Amino acid sequence: xxxxxxxxxxxxxxxxxxxxxxxxxxxxxxxxxxxxxxxxxxxxxxxxxxxxxxxxxxxxxxxxxxxxxxxxxxxxxxxxxxxxxxxxxxxxxxxxxxxxxxxxxxxxxxxxxxxxxxxxxxxxxxxxxxxxxxxxxxxxxxxxxxxxxxxxxxxxxxxxxxxxxxxxxxxxxxxxxxxxxxxxxxxxxxxxxxxxxxxxxxxxxxxxxxxxxxxxxxxxxxxxxxxxxxxxxxxxxxxxxxxxxxxxxxxxxxxxxxxxxxxxxxxxxxxxxxxxxxxxxxxxxxxxxxxxxxxxxxxxxxxxxxxxxxxxxxxxxxxxxxxxxxxxxxxxxxxxx
Length: 337
Ligand code: FAD
Ligand code: EPU
What we know:
Number of domains: 3
Bound molecules: flavin-adenine dinucleotide, uridine-diphosphate-2(N-acetylglucosaminyl) butyric acid
Helix content: 10-25%
Largest sheet: 5 strands, antiparallel
Shape: globular
Strand content: 25-35%
CATH class of the largest domain: Alpha Beta
Order of helices and strands: EEHEEEEEHEEEEEHHEEHEEHEEEHE
Strand order of the largest sheet: 6-7-12-10-11
Number of helices: 7
Distance between the termini: 28 Å
Number of strands: 20
CATH topology of the largest domain: Uridine Diphospho-n-acetylenolpyruvylglucosamine Reductase, domain 3
CATH architecture of the largest domain: 2-Layer Sandwich
């Protein structure tokens, strides 16, 4: 018999630091324990939590929260160029990145210091500083909730996109990811295409580039830009950066001469949501316990006892004003529960 905890505060389990209760709660350390919890849970709604760094809880959860504690890192295959590493979904992402660097396995160094677990990383194809997880992703194993059976998904089957995967779309709520296999490189090809990395390497006086140096530079940039959830509650970028048609971009540029943009291979143009939100006047605004971060307006913050519903309401108002000013609809990146 599985012993579920009841009426559990989720405040320690989400980086926004929102108070909300789970009707039932269980932490699972093995896939077998997860399978038996699922078999016994009845028809309750389910919420899987890794590090809780990409969720906004807006109410008590009237179902079962499954906290992922699956651990283990194992080399499963090796050839001249690559090393295939299977990582249990509950491993901390950044600790895994540091482990790769210590072993000289290249490919994830640009993704240093992203909070959360390995199992949640494919959910939105985490990305930063010119790299996305899909570039080093080989396959994952996930438990189908309806059948309790483990299935394997390869890179193509995950349908990765910018902050997207099949697990946020057609298969939303249907699978629990239990492990991920990464295809890492024995020889590094350094990715310093993101301007700030090269500048930071220069500032830090790095003369010989290495995956450790890139990781250090990324950590340095992130610490200077993003609030630490241990100090101020947040879930990173609240919205995705919108991608618009070139024609719409030209139209906007005629009115907003300084609008920053990045041309995408698809022909679309990416506009930084942070700029749109700042121009709409939200940067650094505080409303009681919540607000818009003073250095990075794409990050909504909880200064202490903020409520999830108030943050959702603030996000809606930001969305509305950006839409009124620019005709662009911002889409949340954070999973609103
Ligand atoms: P959670 O928040 O626990 O879960 C996120 C979603 O995935 C939820 O819907 C949850 O139900 C589901 N889920 C979690 N685990 C599983 C599983 N095993 N199986 C199935 N579903 C699951 N993201 C980026 O991409 N790039 C960044 O640069 C970045 N920077 C950030 C900086 C800060 C300060 C913060 C707070 C967040 C940042 N994020 C970034 C967002 C976040 O770190 C990532 O989305 C991360 O992958 C979330 O992991 P988690 O374990 O905390 O997921
Ligand atoms: N900007 C402003 N005002 C500001 C801050 C930024 O106008 O106060 C504009 C500038 O034009 C700047 C641009 O926004 O050049 C981009 O800002 P930044 O480099 O901080 O990156 P971002 O687009 O806000 C994205 C990701 C981050 C990721 C970084 C680095 C999304 C939604 N966010 O942020 O991911 O770490 O790039 O690659 O794609 C996350 O997903 O949670 C996350 C933090």
